[in-house]
Design brief:
With about 150 residues, the chain is an alpha+beta fold. About 15% of the residues lie in helices and about 40% in strands.
């Protein structure tokens, strides 16, 4: 069981990762890792000394090939996993990006990207991603998916 919380801000050094809800051509961008057959929102871990917005831009490029885009912070979020022995709260920054153009080739562990009108059925993190999307929608970052596809 995972618990998801949302915050306006937090101490910068606590932010460990960036996740970027993205759209292109009025569709939502998901990627599929080479080792999985499920879809995920682009994102990843922050490198040492990296500003969190730079993490978001780097991960968006690495995982989708986005080369021209506008990106905005949505909020801070945390995940606490109660099904392991640590149960520590881990913090990330949620972003929203509007992608105007992509590179032709991907240069990362991502096998493919795809554009969706609605939330894909096979999600890599089904106990986290719908909550992030709902929060972005609640905060006014464009209507994302029909409400009935995100019942939690």
């Amino acid at each position: 069981m995972k618990e998801i919380r949302f915050y306006e801000s937090i101490e910068d050094e606590l932010l460990k990762y960036a996740v970027i809800i993205s759209k292109a051509n009025d569709k939502y961008v998901f990627c599929r890792h080479k080792d999985r057959n499920t879809w995920e929102i682009p994102g990843g871990h922050r490198e040492s000394g990296e500003n969190i917005i730079d993490t978001a831009k780097r991960e968006l490029y690495e995982e989708t090939g986005a080369i021209k885009f506008e990106i905005k912070p949505v909020c801070v979020y945390s995940v606490t996993s109660h099904d392991n022995s640590e149960g520590e709260e881990s913090f990330g920054m949620l972003f929203f990006a509007d992608i105007m153009s992509f590179e032709k080739e991907l240069h990362s562990e991502i096998e493919e990207i795809a554009l969706f009108d609605k939330l894909p059925e096979k999600l890599t993190y089904p106990d986290i991603q719908p909550y992030l999307i709902n929060e972005a929608k609640r905060r006014g970052f464009l209507p994302l998916f029909p409400t009935d596809t995100l019942s939690l």
